Amino acid sequence: MRWMRVTLVLAGAAVAASLGGCGRHSSAEHYYLVASNTKLAYWQSASAGLDKVAAEYNVHAELTGPDTFDPKEQVDDFRAVVAKKPSGILVSVVDPKLMQPEIDAAIEAGIPVLTVDSDAPNSKRLYFIGTNNREAGRLGGRALVQKLNGKGNVVVFTMPGQPNLDERLAGYKDVLATAPDIHIVDVVDIAGQSTIAFDQTEKDVAKTGKDRVDGFVCLEASAGKDVGEVLRRGNLKDRVVIAMDVDKATLDLVKQGVIAATVAQKPFTMAYVGVKMLDMLHHDPLPSLTKNYAVDAQAPIPAFVDTGSALVDASNVDEYLQASQGH
To answer: What domains can you pick out in the chain, each with its CATH number?
Structure first.
């Protein structure tokens, strides 16, 4: 019967630990995710992740930041959050040069800061939670090469200088280095306005001959829908669009065959896991927030948490649509 006594002891310890955990959290704990362009469906998905973990832990978790693409306003909002002395901050960095000193100041003030979605690797942030963006670019790049049959002119819509988007473009270029007959003929800065992608696509689809544009790559969440809408209106079925993210409008265009594929990320997971990690750091503080844990082989924290990415095309779009309806 010794095994039974051991089992009962272990079970009792687990229950005690569980009950003890009920008092671990407090509604006085405040966590923030500072983003930009917060009206995008992408960030509303992240907000849902914040809501879920806040309800589970009985803490406060809030999405904040400008509802347009405004790096300077994002810095102002980050400063305002720091002034509240929260339990921890998540931030998706638009401009690392602007945000780095603000992150460093928050760390020096004793506030744990994690980056999500878009990193500031030269800052003192503790670590990054999000997509392996270079690999996401390679994923899209392989789909682009396949859909174009290895040949064509391509236009890229992005926001240069934003770290996650720059990494995705680097991933595409990694793949295109092996496809010499595919050429990136233009990299367009949409400056946070998908209408720029719409207007540019209208111009590009009218080009012919050696200037003809065969494919469009969208490195952020909003442009794909606008590019797809231009093609849908013109009934243009001979162009390839590789989009980013899985809001319903983008998935619908994949379902219709207007967008060839989109690369899925997990903003809900970034926010949900991010608050859990901040909560752990709040209750079990690190010996120092300013230590360089990247060079510590026995570091108590990771350097990077990959939340995953996947290619969505005609073969699996129904699964993503069903999942979005369930949420």
So the answer is: 23-131+267-291 (3.40.50.2300), 133-264+312-326 (3.40.50.2300)
